């Protein structure tokens, strides 16, 4: 049985409809940094040996420093934030979850799969995507209103000052982090959950040993220690998102939200806009719950002309 859900990507289907190859397309359907962190030089052991405990400890230390994780909170790395999202409902207390929408749909799917029901009031647990996908809304600590809270900060590394990481000092708040978005290495499959040590120990048992590959450990440890790259990347992403807004508003779109890794626009007909761009081999994101929302990620520095020509074509 398929449990396929609406996501960005899906470029293969677009190619079947509009032709071309991956090399000729500009995929703006995701919120992944198009200029990723440079990969380090790997060793034979990175590929040929099981990851050792020191490499995992080094990654945890780098993550603790980069995100200013409270000393009382634990950190668990896993093969992608999505794998953590899928497992969390099985180890969290309660039966009713509040997930403000619209938002990333894997959260609701995971809780439904584990028998939870959604409820906006008197819920046992609240899930907040911070900043939200696709609206870009940032939440505040006053929004952590239920007995237990999960905050998905997959896109929050663009704005570290907005992080709720300090809340993980409390036993009733978990923070999710994604390595693929800000560092642009989604194919590496690496995510983190930070918070209550007892809950994370249960989660670790469900994932099993050696969950994170040797190449991922080496890459992420280097990246999380490179604060200069992170600062320069934040500045570039902010500038590029403003440039994208300028291009889109010139075409009659209205800025409806987003963050510095993706922008959300209000257009007259989202399907028409998607088809218009696709004819020029630019792939965008539309949503089943809105006829007017169009989301675009950012082009790499050498692909802006492709987008400009598609918009003017």
**Quaternary structure annotation:** single chain
Which class best fits the helix and strand makeup? alpha/beta
Strand proportion: 15-25%
Poorly predicted runs? none
Shape: globular
Please tell me the overall pLDDT: 95
Q: Could you state the order of secondary-structure elements as H and E? A: HEHHEHEHEEEEEHHHEEHEEEH
- Discrete helix count: 10
Portion of residues in helices? 25-40%
Describe the strand arrangement of the main beta sheet, using strand numbers: 2-8-7-6-5-3-4
* E-strand count: 13
Biggest pleated-sheet summary: 7 strands, mixed
Distance between the termini: 41 Å
Radius of gyration, in Å, reads 20 Å
Overview of this protein structure:
This protein has 313 residues and is an alpha/beta fold. The protein has helices at residues 11-18, 44-48, 53-66, 81-87, 106-113, 197-207, 214-224, 227-250, 270-278, 304-312; strands at 26-27, 74-78, 96-98, 117-118, 125-129, 148-152, 173-178, 191-195, 254-259, 262-266, 282-283, 285-287, 290-297. The strands form 3 sheets. It has a 7-stranded mixed β-sheet with strand order 2-8-7-6-5-3-4, sandwiched between helices. Strands 9-10-13-12 form a 4-stranded antiparallel β-sheet, covered by helices on one side. Strands 1-11 form a two-stranded parallel ribbon. Helix 3 packs parallel to helix 7 and helix 4 (81-87) packs parallel to helix 5 (106-113). It is globular. It starts with 10 loop residues before the first helix and ends with a helix.
């Amino acid at each position: 049985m398929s449990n396929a859900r609406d996501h960005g990507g899906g470029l293969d289907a677009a190619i079947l409809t509009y032709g071309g190859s991956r090399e000729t397309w500009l995929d703006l359907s995701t919120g992944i940094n198009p200029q990723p962190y440079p990969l380090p030089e790997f060793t034979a052991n990175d590929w040929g040996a099981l990851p050792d405990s020191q490499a995992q400890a080094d990654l945890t230390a780098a993550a603790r420093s980069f995100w200013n994780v409270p000393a009382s909170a634990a950190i668990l790395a896993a093969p992608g934030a999505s794998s953590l999202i899928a497992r969390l409902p099985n180890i969290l207390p309660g039966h009713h979850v509040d997930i403000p929408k619209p938002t990333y749909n894997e959260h609701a799917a995971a809780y439904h799969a584990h028998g939870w029901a959604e409820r906006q009031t008197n819920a046992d647990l609240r899930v907040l995507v911070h900043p939200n996908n696709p609206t870009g809304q940032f939440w505040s600590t006053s929004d952590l209103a239920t007995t237990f809270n999960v905050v998905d900060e997959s896109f929050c590394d663009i704005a570290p000052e907005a992080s709720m990481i300090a809340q993980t000092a409390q036993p009733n708040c978990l923070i999710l982090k994604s390595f693929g978005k800000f560092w642009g290495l989604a194919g590496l499959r690496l995510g983190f959950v930070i918070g209550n040590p007892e809950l994370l120990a249960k989660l670790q048992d469900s994932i099993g040993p050696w969950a994170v590959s040797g190449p991922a450990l080496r890459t992420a440890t280097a990246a999380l220690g490179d604060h200069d790259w992170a600062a320069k990347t934040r500045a570039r992403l902010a500038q590029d998102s403003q440039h994208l807004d300028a291009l889109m508003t010139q075409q009659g779109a209205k800025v409806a939200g987003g963050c510095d890794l993706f922008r959300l626009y209000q257009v007259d007909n989202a399907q028409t806009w998607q088809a218009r761009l696709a004819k020029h081999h630019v792939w965008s994101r539309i949503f089943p719950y809105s006829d007017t929302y169009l989301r675009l990620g950012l082009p790499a520095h050498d692909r802006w002309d492709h987008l400009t020509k598609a918009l003017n074509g």
